[in-house]
Design brief:
With 203 residues, this protein is an all-alpha fold. It is built from 8 helices and no strands. It has helices at residues 2-16, 21-42, 45-54, 65-77, 88-91, 103-134, 140-165, 182-202.
């Protein structure tokens, strides 16, 4: 998961820097050509299982257990949720990794659709405001640098919510500012602090 974030962050920065479209076209073609070889020789069994579960295969009591429990948590939350700390999937420990990678499923169960929607709105406001501020920078290199500071937070948010909802394969990516874990929280806050510092000094 972390490797994917680094890869996509680099590709987006290449696109923002004005790299020619041929580079991305050739990259896509090379990826399509190498995909069968990567599936056979690079990916491990547990990584293949994650992809097959995403495609709707696998036993829901084995490989698909985690995403199945996440769906139950999200669906049982309803519109208003069961109340903070009253989610059964988390409290009764049916949902693995409920404090880290699958914290969004817990939030959906306890806060409901409206609470989850409010959280997504807060993320959108954070990123939208940040990228509006980036456009005010006159130095192109400063724009690329602060974009790089924010891109991994943005991609981690999209990937985490996507995998919890079942629209992306499961990877070990925490939800920024929400998931339990000191290292992830420290990196996120450090990146936001660096972003703020550059915005103050370079505008």
């Amino acid at each position: 998961g972390t490797a994917l974030i680094v890869l996509f962050s680099g590709l987006i920065l290449c696109w923002l820097s004005g790299l020619q479209r041929k580079f991305f076209l050739y990259s896509i073609l090379a990826t399509l050509v190498m995909a069968p070889l990567a599936w056979t020789f690079v990916l491990r069994d547990y990584q293949k299982n994650r992809i097959t579960v995403f495609l709707g295969q696998g036993d829901r009591h084995k490989e698909g257990y985690q995403i199945e429990q996440a769906r139950i948590a999200i669906g049982s939350g309803g519109l208003w949720g069961k109340g903070l700390f009253n989610g059964t999937q988390n409290r009764l420990r049916f949902l693995p990794e409920s404090r880290t990678d699958f914290i969004f499923a817990v939030l959906c169960e306890e806060l409901g659709l409206l609470g989850a929607f409010a959280i997504i709105i807060c993320y959108n406001l954070l990123f939208f405001r940040a990228f509006l501020l980036i456009r005010t920078l006159k130095d192109v290199y400063a724009q690329l640098f602060v974009s790089g500071l924010l891109l991994h937070i943005l991609l981690a948010t999209i990937i985490n919510i996507g995998m919890v909802l079942g629209i992306m394969p499961i990877v070990g990516i925490p939800l920024p500012l929400m998931s339990y874990g000191l290292s992830n929280l420290w990196i996120t806050i450090a990146c936001l602090g660096g972003f703020q510092n550059i915005m103050i000094r370079c505008r």
